Task: inverse folding
């Protein structure tokens, strides 16, 4: 068993989308090598990183695979070859229904650690290309850290990160494909989610363009007191940041979670007024 780490080094890969899954895998291979050479323990890729995001419903359906499909197997071999964990996005097959917008984490032995389906679809493109995820996010443990997965728009809902925090999450990893019109997400919402839950939030965004979309970059690692620990600009970048056990424990000492008035929150699960 691998010993727990007091410091976990993340690499957030901010990149444009490749033209094909084969190109995406080749670029992931070289990026994983670079990330490991720079000391990263875990590499987080953007949303739908293996296939592209704005590719149309037919293309998404054609590229969809099960969680143990050929694309996931190829990522597992990359993780094993370079000795680091990888979080990647792909289209998960869903029978005759629209695929799921999914992310998966694999460990340095190429073994699947966790899997999550995007639950909150943003705009017409998401609704046309994907089915909504049908399971709440859950925590998994790796190297002594309790981690959770979300995808892009999910992090804009306070309930998703709070649900992970109540399960003991210490960091939330968020592959994303956020556009330039929504810079408030990395600038404001990601640090707020980290602060209000006393955990780390790692937000790995795409950059460049796809048909009809210009991605905003600004990949961010926010600390458990809401500080922006590192943030990218607009262009392609491998951004490194550290999860530190000491800083996490110090922040959690001031957590508001023990003082929640759950007896008053019943209205949160009701439908909004018309």
Result:
């Amino acid at each position: 068993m691998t010993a727990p780490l007091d410091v976990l080094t993340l690499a957030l890969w901010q990149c444009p989308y490749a033209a094909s899954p084969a190109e995406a895998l080749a670029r992931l291979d070289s990026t994983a090598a670079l990330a490991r050479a720079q000391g990263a323990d875990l590499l987080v890729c953007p949303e739908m990183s293996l296939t592209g995001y704005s590719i149309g419903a037919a293309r998404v359906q054609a590229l969809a695979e099960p969680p143990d499909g050929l694309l996931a197997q190829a990522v597992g071999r990359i993780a094993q070859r370079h000795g680091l964990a990888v979080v990647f996005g792909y289209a998960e097959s869903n029978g005759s229904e629209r695929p799921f917008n999914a992310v998966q984490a694999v460990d340095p032995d190429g073994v699947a650690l966790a899997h999550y389906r995007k639950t909150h679809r943003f705009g017409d493109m998401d609704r046309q290309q994907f089915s909504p995820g049908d399971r709440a996010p859950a925590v998994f443990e790796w190297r002594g850290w309790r981690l959770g997965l979300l995808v892009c728009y999910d992090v804009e809902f306070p309930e998703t990160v709070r649900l992970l925090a109540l399960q003991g999450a210490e960091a939330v990893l968020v592959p994303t494909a956020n556009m330039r019109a929504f810079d408030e997400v990395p600038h404001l919402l990601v640090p707020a989610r980290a602060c209000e839950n006393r955990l780390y939030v790692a937000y790995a965004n795409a950059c460049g363009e796809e048909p009809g979309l210009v991605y905003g970059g600004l990949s961010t690692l926010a600390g458990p007191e809401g500080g922006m620990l590192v943030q990218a600009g607009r262009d392609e970048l491998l951004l490194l940041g550290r999860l530190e056990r000491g800083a996490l424990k110090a922040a959690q000492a001031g957590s508001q979670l023990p003082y929640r008035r759950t007896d008053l929150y019943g209205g949160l699960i009701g439908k909004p007024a018309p």
Remarks:
- Residues 210 and 232 are 20 Å apart (CA to CA).
- The domain at 8-254 is CATH 3.60.110.10 (Nitrilase/N-carbamoyl-D-aminoacid amidohydrolase).
- Helices lie at 21-37, 57-63, 70-82, 123-129, 158-166, 184-197, 245-252.
- The chain has one domain: 8-254.
